[in-house]
Structure formats: structure tokens, C-alpha cells
């Protein structure tokens, strides 16, 4: 079974944008699952994304009581045999791979946010770490970003970082 994924984080709506960019909405429509790694800020963003299809999300440090009541701090899902985890913060980039191997021993792919810096590495144990950046708040990055990926035949394939 092939699953098309959209990975986003740190939307910070309405602080950094009034709504999700059109490219994110189109990608959500094309995805089988949207994964959001926190800092939605407004619960309306969660509701909006759910009109496009299933959403797996977590709350971030900028999310208030309403989102914290509706979302976990860490989410897990097995997609076609691939074990995913989603969390907002992973701490400092130094030694991130080793720390995440210890923190998520039963995970194949960890999606995270917080830094707004796109990230795609593999830990010593072989876990893939993915941060899609932000589609609305680029901070010191040159462009806004999101990621897409495909899970097929028990493997993560075609991870692509998209500049918006």
C-alpha cells in the first residue's frame, strides 16, 4: 500500500500568516496523511487541515490549552510497516542523532519541528530524522518550506523538501 505524506511544522497562524499557503493546501489534498510537528498556534489550523484529510499532529511550545487538549506531545503511527513518531522539540542539533536514538528506540522515522530549519539525517541506529521547516515563518532560512514523502512496500521513499 502506497501512502503519500505531507510534513509541515511551525505554521504559527495567525502570528506569521493569516492562513495556510495555497501550495500547502494543494499538497494536503494530494496526501493520504498530513503530519504536523507542532506550533500551530490557532486550533483553526488543525480544523482546516482536517478538511483536507487525516492529520497526525502534536502540540508545540507555542500552542495553548485548546490544542494541548486535542493533541498529544508525542504521536506514533505505523504506516505500511514503517514506525513513525512525531514530536515538536528535539533539543540542540549537536548530538541530536544519538539522543533521538535513545529517546525513540522503536521508531524508524522521527518528524520534528521547532527550529524552522529543514533537517534530513539518519541516526547511527538508522532512524531517519526529518524537520520540514516552516511554510509560513522562515526565520533565518532563505525560503518557506514543507516536505513530502512516500511510504511504499514497508519503506520511506522519495522524501522531498519543497521551497514555497
From TrEMBL:
Keywords: Metal-binding. SUPFAM superfamilies: Metallo-dependent phosphatases. It comes from Microbacterium insulae. Belongs to the metallophosphoesterase superfamily. YfcE family. Gene3D superfamilies: 3.60.21.10. Pfam families: Metallophos_2. It comes from the Bacteria. The keyword Transmembrane helix does not apply. Residues 4-153 form the Calcineurin-like phosphoesterase domain. This is Phosphoesterase. The lineage of its organism: Bacteria, Bacillati, Actinomycetota, Actinomycetes, Micrococcales. Its EC number is 3.1.4.-. The keyword Metal-binding applies.
Amino acid at each position: 500500500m502506497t501512502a503519500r505524506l505531507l510534513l509541515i511544522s511551525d505554521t504559527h497562524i495567525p502570528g506569521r500568516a493569516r492562513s495556510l499557503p495555497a501550495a500547502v493546501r494543494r499538497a494536503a489534498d494530494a496526501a493520504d496523511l498530513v503530519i504536523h510537528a507542532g506550533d500551530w498556534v490557532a486550533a483553526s489550523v488543525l480544523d482546516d487541515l482536517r478538511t483536507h484529510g487525516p492529520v497526525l499532529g502534536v502540540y508545540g511550545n507555542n500552542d495553548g490549552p485548546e490544542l494541548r487538549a486535542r493533541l498529544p506531545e508525542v504521536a506514533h503511527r505505523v504506516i505500511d510497516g514503517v514506525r513513525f513518531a512525531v514530536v515538536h522539540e528535539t533539543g540542540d542539533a549537536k548530538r541530536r542523532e544519538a539522543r533521538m536514538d535513545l529517546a525513540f528506540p522503536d521508531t524508524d522515522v522521527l518528524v520534528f519541528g521547532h527550529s524552522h530549519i529543514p533537517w534530513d539525517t539518519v541516526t547511527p541506529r538508522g532512524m531517519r530524522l526529518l524537520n520540514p521547516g516552516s511554510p509560513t515563518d522562515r526565520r533565518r532560512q532563505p525560503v518557506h518550506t514543507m516536505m513530502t514523502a512516500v511510504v511504499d512496500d514497508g519503506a520511506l521513499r522519495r522524501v522531498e523538501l519543497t521551497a514555497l
